[in-house]
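Subject: mismatched residue count in predicted assembly?

I count 259 residues in my input, but I want to confirm that the predicted structure covers every chain. Input:
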Amino acid sequence: MKEPLYAESFKIRGGDFEHGGEVATRIKSICKELGIRPDLIRRLSIANFEAEMNVIMYADEADLCFQVSTEDVRVVVADRGQGISDIELAMTPGWSTATAEMRARGFGAGLGLPNIRNSVDEFRVDSRPGAGTTLTYVVRIA
Amino acid sequence: MLLAEIVSLLGCTELLDLEGAGNREITGCFAADLMSEVLAFCGHGPLLVTGLTNVQSLHTAEIVDVKAILYVNGKCPDVQVLALARARELPLLSTTMTMYEACGRLHRGGLPASTKV
Ligand SMILES: Nc1ncnc2c1ncn2[C@@H]1O[C@H](COP(=O)(O)OP(=O)(O)OP(=O)(O)O)[C@@H](O)[C@H]1O
Ligand SMILES: [Mg+2]
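Triage response: the counts match. Full output below for your records.
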């Protein structure tokens, strides 16, 4: 049933603020070309941007795998890095460990993970402290 | 409200001279310095008022289809950010007013808040 329409994988590097946000905007333009509904593209792009920036701020590197089928868009962001020891706390709106430098760059509201959860239809976080974090989320398009 | 009306209302500077930018219709406004707040709370296609001039302000703008960005406190982005905005045909404005003052004038001038539906 789930015919794959498109799949691509993107590398994100920790600390790379210069390019931070490019993966999310690149995927947005791919989704436009695929004719996905604008409101669904917006929700997906919010999740992608927040996930991308979290890798840049808190992890060493990650692969973001983006997969589109006739039914949904599925994204897996698997990073290598410090991981998250208390996922429930990390998901609390307003909770952030962002440094003063990150805040000066416009981050650290503690809204990124809640934004992802609120923007997608399925969401899951798996993390191993000291190893890394994997976010998996789905936006239904059918 | 037309972008040209916003420019005259605030007496602000247009940082790029994009063809026809003044005729773009702006229907709402959202102001924040934290990008996650923009993504969480703003509606579709607003004027974004911010003090943040880095490249992430443009990427965030792209995601919520911002129609133009107004930088407050006399801020101006660097040449790379200006070039990216020009490539995306995103009008950038700059004012020496503070965020409060700029937003107050825009609201009084009749530009409503952009909120998520
Ligand atoms: N990939 C990750 N690896 C390690 N820690 C993470 C990761 N993503 C999030 N965190 C931790 O969870 C906290 C909350 O993340 P969240 O994205 O909600 O907020 P933030 O990044 O601090 O601020 P905002 O996203 O609003 O700019 C972060 O401050 C950080 O401590
Ligand atoms: Mg975040």
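The beta strands of chain A are 4-13, 59-69, 72-81, 122-128, 132-140. Marking this ticket as 'not a bug'.
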